[in-house]
């Protein structure tokens, strides 16, 4: 359908710096991370500041009401660490709240439909969010700045309000029907009863006040203090079974990351429950079957497609289904000392549950839909159960004990194919970060067909068509068919750093170390110091 829709060629340049860089799906959040670097923070501080800023500039993708993973390379210690801050079901979860209804289509995760879509939209679709706990734990263990300092940019952005451009209007418009069901959500995103129009800032309700409480009282306020009490009341009033005890019991998990060797470089990903195992299995296939001395071409895409298909087939056999993730955001950061971070977190669907909690202004996830409403499966609903299957795949690549790049992406089943190809372009063909981000990609994942960007060229399409059934589709702003990557690179010899965002996302980008300037973020312009 979209083989030949847009008639321009889009390319995005990498941002260069002799110090640190932050890359994200929204450049204003990247600027908040760059501000943390300018105030003496390291890559961990930068990534955490960026992640909190996304609450105010990209709320439909992630936020304090979400969950995810972070992978960190600690340059001085020459080791990688990971944190799982996935969501958890309330202890009192009751499957009778989710009766199967054959008239309702299967959920995004492939599970049978539930009456009223209760596991996908609304208060009963919400899990206990892990984002605040996971992000604060990373900052406390490995950051340099205080938690209040990391929130300063997010507070400024939240109190200014959500900047609305045509891209934000698109995101809101896609979910306007369901946002309208919840008064606080509608009040924020549908002023006058319609999707917010560009050239304005939207009041984000109590979000700024909540961030200020966190800055003053620390992250415990979100799980054991006034914020937790108010959020639990809002959730109860809406029909959720989440209690203050569920908030108080939440804790992130520190992990030993998965490590996979590819052509002398080590790729670190969070765990078997993330997309990391599929990434490793795909690279195993590539190592065995791809000769990188041959020029990049159709055979490259063929090997990558077969590698991804096999990895996804194996995953489906292990789990019984292929997980999806809808609304996700990825950010990567690097500092002058060589520390590097890949961080991915999500609300699951776009705008998550569609519920903005009135007391806190926090937009909540709909991660109950990660779980099977039927008993007896690995992902069945059980009280207190943590999300145990995800596509998120934040990746840090290290060679000779020096981090060389960090990359990750958003976009459901597209995440692993995208992350794998960007990393493979750099490791198999020695592409620069900018070249890797601008080279056309395929999408494959155990389907009968593979999707190919026609920018790969007619010769590639013809060659792939002899092996696979092809879906030929451009890499567009929407629909997002090839994922949305963000990445950073560091040259170990010179210390020079680079960052790049998805070329098909108009607001994705990278920002070098510099103070935050709200006037620049309001105007859509930012000066980047090289």
Tell me the name of the CATH homologous superfamily: Gamma-glutamyltranspeptidase, small (S) subunit
In the residues, how many domains can be counted? 1
Number of helices: 17
Determine Rg (CA atoms, Å): 21 Å
Largest sheet: 7 strands, antiparallel
Give me the secondary-structure topology.
Layout lengths: L14 E3 L3 E4 L2 H12 L4 H15 L9 E8 L4 E7 L45 H12 L4 H14 L1 E3 L1 H9 L1 H4 L3 H7 L10 E3 L4 H11 L2 H4 L2 H13 L5 H6 L3 E3 L2 E5 L2 E5 L6 H14 L8 H22 L7 E8 L5 E9 L46 E5 L2 E9 L4 H15 L3 H6 L3 E2 L5 E4 L5 H8 L3 E4 L11 E7 L6 E5 L7 E4 L5 H6 L7
Parallel strand pairs: 15-16
Antiparallel strand pairs: 1-18, 2-10, 2-19, 3-4, 3-11, 4-7, 5-6, 8-9, 9-12, 10-11, 12-13, 13-17, 14-15, 17-18
Explain how this protein is built.
This protein has helices spanning 27-38, 43-57, 131-142, 147-160, 166-174, 176-179, 183-189, 207-217, 220-223, 226-238, 244-249, 276-289, 298-319, 415-429, 433-438, 458-465, 518-523, and strands spanning 15-17, 21-24, 67-74, 79-85, 162-164, 200-202, 253-255, 258-262, 265-269, 327-334, 340-348, 395-399, 402-410, 442-443, 449-452, 469-472, 484-490, 497-501, 509-512. The chain is α+β, with helices and mostly antiparallel strands and 530 residues long. The chain has one domain: Glutamine Phosphoribosylpyrophosphate, subunit 1, domain 1 (4-Layer Sandwich). The strands form 4 sheets. Strands 1-18-17-13-12-9-8 form a 7-stranded antiparallel sheet. The protein has a 7-stranded antiparallel sheet with strand order 7-4-3-11-10-2-19. It has a 3-stranded mixed sheet with strand order 14-15-16. The longest helix has 22 residues, at 298-319. It is globular and about 60 Å long. Mean pLDDT is 93; it is low at 524-530.
């Amino acid at each position: 359908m979209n083989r030949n829709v847009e008639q321009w060629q889009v390319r995005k340049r990498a941002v260069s710096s002799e110090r640190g860089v932050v890359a994200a799906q929204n450049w204003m959040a990247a600027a908040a991370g760059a501000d943390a670097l300018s105030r003496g923070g390291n890559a961990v501080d930068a990534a955490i500041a960026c992640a909190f800023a996304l609450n105010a500039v990209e709320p439909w993708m992630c936020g304090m009401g979400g969950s995810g993973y972070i992978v960190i390379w600690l340059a001085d210690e020459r080791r990688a660490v990971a944190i799982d801050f996935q969501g958890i079901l309330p202890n009192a979860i009751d499957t009778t709240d989710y009766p199967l209804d054959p008239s309702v289509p299967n959920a995004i995760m492939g599970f049978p439909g539930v009456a009223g879509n209760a596991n996908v939209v609304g208060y009963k679709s919400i899990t206990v969010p892990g984002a605040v706990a996971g992000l604060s734990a990373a900052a406390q263990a490995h950051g340099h700045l205080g938690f209040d300092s990391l929130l300063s940019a997010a507070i400024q952005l939240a109190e200014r309000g959500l900047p609305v451009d045509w891209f934000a209007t698109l995101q809101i418009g896609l979910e306007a029907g369901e946002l309208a069901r919840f008064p606080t959500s509608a009040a924020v995103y549908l002023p006058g009863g319609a999707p917010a129009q560009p050239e304005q800032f939207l009041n984000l309700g109590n979000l700024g006040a909540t961030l200020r409480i966190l800055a003053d009282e620390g992250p415990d306020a979100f799980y054991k203090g006034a914020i937790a009490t108010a959020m639990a009341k809002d959730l109860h009033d809406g029909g959720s079974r989440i209690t203050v005890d569920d908030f108080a019991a939440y804790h992130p998990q520190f992990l030993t990351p998965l490590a996979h060797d590819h052509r002398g470089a080590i790729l670190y990903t969070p765990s078997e429950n993330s997309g990391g195992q599929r990434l490793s299995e795909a690279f195993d296939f590539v190592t065995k079957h791809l000769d990188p001395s041959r020029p990049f071409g159709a055979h490259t895409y063929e090997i990558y497609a077969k590698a991804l298909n096999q990895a996804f087939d194996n995953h489906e056999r292990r789990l019984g289904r292929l997980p999806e993730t809808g609304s996700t955001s990825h950010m990567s950061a690097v500092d002058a000392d060589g520390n590097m971070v890949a961080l991915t977190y999500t609300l699951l669907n776009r705008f998550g549950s569609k519920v903005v909690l009135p007391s806190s202004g926090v937009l909540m996830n709909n991660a109950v839909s990660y779980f099977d409403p039927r008993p007896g499966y690995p992902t069945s609903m059980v009280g207190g159960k943590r999300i145990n299957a995800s596509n998120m795949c934040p990746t840090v690549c290290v060679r000779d004990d020096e981090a060389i790049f960090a990359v990750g992406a958003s976009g459901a089943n597209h995440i692993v194919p995208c992350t794998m190809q960007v990393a493979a372009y750099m490791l198999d063909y020695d592409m620069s970060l900018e070249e890797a981000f601008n080279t056309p990609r395929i999408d494959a994942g155990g389907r009968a067909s593979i999707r190919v960007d026609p920018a790969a060229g007619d010769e590639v399409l013809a060659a792939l068509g002899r092996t696979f059934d092809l879906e030929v589709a451009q890499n567009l702003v929407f629909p997002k068919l090839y994922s949305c990557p963000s990445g950073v690179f560091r040259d170990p010899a010179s210390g020079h750093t680079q960052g790049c965002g998805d070329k098909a996302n108009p607001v994705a980008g990278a920002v070098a170390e510099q103070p935050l300037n709200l006037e620049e973020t309001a105007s859509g312009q930012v000066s980047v110091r090289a």
